Amino acid sequence: MAANYVFKEINDEEYKNKCVIAPAPKEAKTFYSPFEPPYSDVKHLFYNFFIPYVQPYEYTGWRDEQLSWEKTVYLHAGLSCSPYYRFQGPDATKFMMKHCTCTFENFPVGTGKHAITCNEEGIITSHGMLFRLDENTYDTYFMLSLAAYYKEEAADYDMEMTDLTGKKFLFQIGGPRSLELLEKVTKEDLHDVKFMTFRNTSINGKTVRIARMGMAGTLAYELHGDTEDSYELYDLIYRAGEEFGIRRLGWHSYMMEHTICGYPQTSYHFACDIPGFPDNTGNVSGSVGRETAGYTDPYSLGWGFCVKFDHDFVGREALEKMKANRKRKMVSLVWNHDDILKVYASQFTDNPYAPIDEPNDLAKDYRVAIHQDKVLDADGNMIGVNSGRMMSLYYHEMISQCQLDLAFCEEGTEVYVLWGEPGTNQIKIRATVARFPYYNENPNNKLDVETIPRYNK
Fold it and tell me: Which annotated residues bind substrate (predicted)?
């Protein structure tokens, strides 16, 4: 049975005691996220300093939530507060082409693309989604770099930028039962919505945009709508999803999904060198050391397919050289069980290794954005950067993503993850190079939805 929820400001001890990471400062006036109803059964919360709102960290626990993207269906609203900008005007495409690495040759209205911007050195400054609403209008999500570039270059373009951050919700509905759930709540046949396309539909009389995309690694969709409708529609979808085994994802489980499903994410696997933001050096935990920044390039993340040299864009020259002299690519690593157990066993000694109790390395301190570890060869040479460690209940494995030197990328190769901060008791954990993405069953871009029954037939 779906839990009830209450509307209230989060200023009482009951809710503050549920904040497990980055607890709200005593002087803060903390409000619950306007995008996710404050259900009474939420297990853990966290205070997001960058919003600032209190958001669900876990609803029913990461173990219960995690299997939803492989077996049933999930609902997640944690990205609703992310940067959302609309660019509109005769020069909107010209502006996008100057900064985005993706092609615009095959970009019809009603479709979306994964957009990346880079600096002149080819280092990623932002990445996110780009939706083409009409010939001269684009919606962008998470593209802080484009907003910064526009503020510097506005006089050069006949167009306008509108900041819609916080005015629209973004719900992610993913998993093998997601299409059936969405057809139930929209009372409409949605089998026509192809991968990376979108159109409008309605739920309970409220207009929403549905797009077939997501982080599930399998069938997944996004819903975009007005913030004032978010509580009502979230709750309606959640209750309608009971027959499909729906789970609400908190931030904890959601970030694990990025690792196993093959979607590197900023502020978790790597950092973006966002224009106007402080340098990220010193803001990385793990064995790589605090002198690193976590910046990287599209090829090291496996995003070379998002770089097309059919137009001039910032960073093109550097990326052309990187493509010709590629050094690393993204792989999955599967960690050795015996070595993991050594880390646990060390906790009962006077000289323990860094704890590995948590199922992933989500930063507990908002001032430390990401966790990265060195990856070594048998001789102790650094050959890669590991991030996003997570425990998979589906595969019964510890899995991570790794930007690895090309010479070591063959599946089955054994490498070593250096576990522990510099200057502490460190251990080399054996890991095996594996497929990327690791979860590769019925990927969204290849899944034939005609194999799924129509809910409203």
Answer: 222
- E strand segments, 290-350: 328-335
Amino acid at 419: W
Rounded Cα gap, residues 258 and 255, in angstroms: 5
Helices (H), 335-388: 337-346
Question: Rounded mean pLDDT of 27-50?
Answer: 75
Q: Could you give the 3-state DSSP secondary structure of residue 415?
A: strand
Q: Model-level pTM? A: 0.93
- Domains of the chain, earliest start first: 13-81+166-260 (3.30.1360.120), 84-163 (3.30.70.1400), 284-434 (3.30.1360.120)
Residue whose entry in the numeric block shows the structure tokens 């932002």: 126
Is the Cα dihedral 19, 23, 26, 30 positive or negative?
negative
Span 181-210, pLDDT tens digits: 999 999 999 999 999 999 999 999 999 999
Q: Is 243 annotated as a binding residue?
A: no
Q: How far apart are CA 46 and CA 250, in angstroms?
A: 10
Q: Which residue has the higher pLDDT, 101 or 290?
A: 101
| Residue 268 contacts residue 370 (beta carbons within 8 Å) | yes
Strands (E), 227-352: 246-248, 284-285, 328-335
In this prediction, residue 83 carries a pLDDT of 93
For residue 21, the model assigns a pLDDT of 57
Q: Count CB neighbours of 121 within 10 A.
A: 13
H helix and E strand count, the chain? 10, 21
* Cα 205–chain centre separation: 30
pLDDT beyond 60 at 418: yes
Helices (H), 266-356: 316-324, 337-346
Residue 9 reports pLDDT greater than 60: no
